[in-house]
Design goal:
The complex is a heterodimer of chains A (294) and B (386).
Chain A: H1 2-30, H2 37-54, H3 59-82, H4 95-115, E1 130-133, E2 136-139, H5 140-162, H6 164-174, H7 176-181, H8 186-212, H9 219-234, H10 239-259, H11 265-279
Antiparallel strand pairs in A: 1-2
Chain B: H1 2-20, E1 43-51, H2 58-78, E2 81-89, H3 94-107, E3 112-114, H4 119-132, E4 136-138, E5 153-155, H5 160-175, E6 179-185, H6 189-204, E7 208-215, H7 223-232, E8 236-240, H8 243-256, E9 262-264, H9 272-277, E10 284-288, H10 297-310, H11 316-335, H12 340-348, E11 353-354, E12 359-362, E13 368-369, E14 373-378, E15 381-384
Parallel strand pairs in B: 1-2, 1-3, 3-4, 4-5, 6-7, 6-8, 8-9, 9-10
Antiparallel strand pairs in B: 10-14, 11-12, 12-13, 14-15
Helix pairs in contact in B: 2-11, 3-4, 5-6, 7-8, 11-12
The chains are: A mainly alpha (294), B alpha/beta (386).
């Protein structure tokens, strides 16, 4: 039983981690929190519903469509809500934050309009495949989710530290103006960041649909707040932090149900975060002087 | 870093503001003023309707007013009572429901009121109507304590505290249940009160409660709770949930290999469960006042007429409103005038009224007395549970 619960926790944690990766990437480069990320994630999930349930097409296509649509949403987000506010005199540093909140409200209502208020099913036979090891049942979906989460994190870390584009991105994160002076196409880099982060949200959306079969227009808000909490826990802008934070939150939420009261699930998970932050205010993997990042 | 903390604080402040302003809007709509002159010999009366017609729950109000209008049309054709319906929108809000009620009672001078839609609205409108001596009947208010508000407050919607025991009893009979697990939403008044009833019934019946688990609205992952329930090996799962969460719970439970039946509350009773959970919904047992598949001429006539008039299947709310209208018309006919007190007394005396929901009476408190129908989902359809 404990093993099964551990796997449940890891699955939930992996999904949290992928959502948080999207936040952390945008925060790392732009220094803002993208409040529309949760809603982009929700759109990814709905793309899965449309492809697998409404159109009865294979799951693989759902991934492709979700990534494409959320990447496009990310592009629009950057072009319409973020870029017009960047680098202008007199624009408050909170302005892009507010505009992303606007986008999030817009997207939620759009989903409401297109897909209805209720829960939508996610039809895929894939989610029923399971392996029985002793008394423990492991689902293929759970393995896939964990694998995708690890792959994304490793891939992202590798891309950031080893490739030229990744280095350019980190340079942008360090100092946008300096990077621009040194010949980095910052406009392109920022756009790429937002698009990649959004596509990751789309992947997470499909995974949630596969794992839990629960997709609603409101799911972005809950997931979004958890993602925010995770990047604060893991350290703002840290890729490893997002991963570790996501797993910690997922596991602690599950373990609370196992050993205690399921009613305090969220409360205790967030209390754990507060305690960790008291000990390490910069987050688990955060840098001590992030002021220099901007 | 300090800067970003400040940023975060402001986000949460903004989010709070957003939540606070999330629900707004909604206008009063009045309609259905069929100003026919009273026919000879017919008792004419004005009846106010307060319903949730704009906003998130507009679907409920639509079903309710449709049911009322259909019943009123038939009543008019029968020619014994001539009722003018005056409809007001409450937008699902207490204060708007109250001002609508005041308008209906004081300026429109109605003889009786049907509505409002929500129990929370009834909690403020009921005492006001009782004070003014206007009989008021809720057709969708199921919370505890509604008819106890006063002598003038009635309802024809069966409370969960009656529906749930009926379904649990039948499930015990059929499956020889000894051990149960309970799962409920602890952040909603409705699902919480459903849980209280379930717990009480389980204790009264001497069932062993293996574990009690909770969840919150909008949760997506129930695997942790369900794994725990699975390992206690219950004969039956009592699940107080609204259909959105409930359907997902059933889906995840079936995938996990939990194949015991579920007993749900009224919030679980929706065809949406089948739409969302598919095959996984099989084995859900609910008690309901309304079953459209009932083998009864009255019921089938109503379904056909409703479909013809509004182009969709009537739901529980339409059916309860339809019967509510008839109950009131019946009382007005018996009272023989539009006098508020006479109507109240006639309404209170209602006994053995044959409606589409079944045989209905009011007890001394004004609460409905009737036998709910117990249904189960089998092969993707709601069927009588026997």
């Amino acid at each position: 039983m404990i093993l099964e619960q551990l796997i449940n926790g890891l699955t939930l944690g992996s999904i949290y981690a992928i959502v948080a990766l999207g936040y952390t990437l945008v925060f790392g480069v732009l220094g803002i929190i993208n409040m529309a990320h949760g809603e982009i994630f929700m759109f990814g999930a709905f793309m899965g519903v449309v492809i697998t349930h409404t159109l009865q097409l294979p799951l693989a296509l759902a991934f492709v469509v979700a990534i494409a649509v959320t990447a496009l949403l990310g592009l629009f987000l950057e072009l319409l809500a973020l870029r017009p506010l960047r680098g202008k005199k007199g624009v408050s540093h909170l302005a892009p934050l507010i505009s992303t909140i606007g986008v999030s409200i817009f997207l939620e209502n759009l989903a409401h309009h297109f897909f209805g208020a209720g829960n939508r099913p996610f039809n895929t036979s894939f989610s029923e495949i399971s392996v029985q090891i002793g008394s423990v049942t492991i689902y293929a979906v759970q393995l896939v989710i964990f694998a995708i989460a690890v792959l994304l994190m490793v891939g992202l870390s590798f891309w950031l530290s080893k490739t030229k584009a990744g280095k350019a991105l980190r340079a942008c994160a360090e100092n946008l103006e300096a990077a621009s002076l040194l010949g980095v196409n910052t406009k392109k880099m920022i756009m790429m960041t937002v698009v990649i982060a959004s596509a990751m949200g789309g992947i997470a959306g499909i995974l949630v649909g596969m794992a839990f079969n629960s997709v609603t227009p409101q799911m972005g808000l809950t997931m979004g707040l958890k993602g925010l909490a995770i990047i604060i826990l893991g350290g703002m802008g840290s890729v490893r932090g997002a991963m570790a934070g996501g797993l910690i939150l997922g596991l602690s939420e599950t373990m609370i149900v196992v050993f205690g009261e399921s009613g305090y699930r969220d409360a205790i998970a967030f209390i754990a975060i507060i305690v960790i932050l008291l000990v390490r205010p910069q987050g688990l993997f955060g840098q001590a002087a992030p002021e220099a990042r901007r | 870093m300090r800067k970003s903390y400040k940023g975060l604080l402001s986000i949460f402040a903004i989010m709070a503001l957003l939540l606070a302003s999330a629900c707004s809007g909604g206008n009063e709509t009045s309609g259905d003023q069929s100003g026919d002159a009273a026919k000879d010999g017919a008792v004419s009366a004005k009846v106010g309707v307060i319903s949730w017609l704009t906003g998130a729950g507009a679907g409920y109000g639509e079903a309710i007013t449709n049911g009322l209008k259909l019943a009123n049309k038939e009543i008019k054709e029968q020619g014994k009572v001539d009722i003018e319906l005056i409809t007001e929108d409450s937008a699902g809000k207490q204060e708007q429901a109250l001002s609508s009620a005041q308008k209906l009672m004081n300026s429109e001078n109605v003889s009786a009121i049907i509505g409002p839609t929500l129990s929370t609205e009834m909690k403020v409108v009921g005492p006001e109507a009782d004070l003014n001596g206007v009989p008021i009947m809720g057709t969708s208010t199921t919370a505890a304590g509604i008819p106890q508000i006063g002598d003038y407050v009635f309802r024809d919607s069966i409370p969960e505290s009656l529906a749930i025991p009926a379904s649990i009893e039948k499930a015990i009979e059929k499956y020889d249940v000894k051990k149960v697990a309970i799962l409920y939403g602890n952040d909603d008044v409705f699902t919480k009160s459903g849980y209280d009833t379930m717990k009480k019934v389980a204790e009264d019946k001497g069932l062993e409660i293996l574990t009690t688990e909770t969840f919150q609205k909008g949760q997506a992952d129930y695997n942790a709770q369900l794994t725990k329930i699975k390992n206690t090996q219950p004969d039956l799962i009592l699940c107080s949930a609204l259909y959105n969460e409930g359907a997902v719970i059933m889906d995840q439970a079936r995938k996990m290999g939990i194949d015991v039946p579920f007993v749900g509350g009224n919030g679980f009773n929706s065809p949406e469960v089948i739409k969302i959970a598919g095959d996984a919904a099989d084995g859900l047992i609910v008690a309901t006042p309304w079953f459209a598949g009932k083998d009864d001429q009255k019921v089938q006539d109503f379904v056909a007429k409703y479909k013809e008039e509004y182009g969709k299947e009537p739901d529980q709310f339409a059916a309860q409103a339809y019967d509510g209208m008839y109950l009131l018309a019946n009382a007005i006919e018996k009272a023989g005038s539009d006098d508020r007190d006479a109507i109240r007394d006639a309404l209170a005396e209602t006994e053995g009224f044959e409606g589409i929901l079944g045989e209905m009476s009011f007890d001394e408190e004004g609460d409905i007395v009737m036998e709910p129908t117990v249904l189960t989902i089998k092969e993707g359809k709601f069927q009588l549970f026997e």
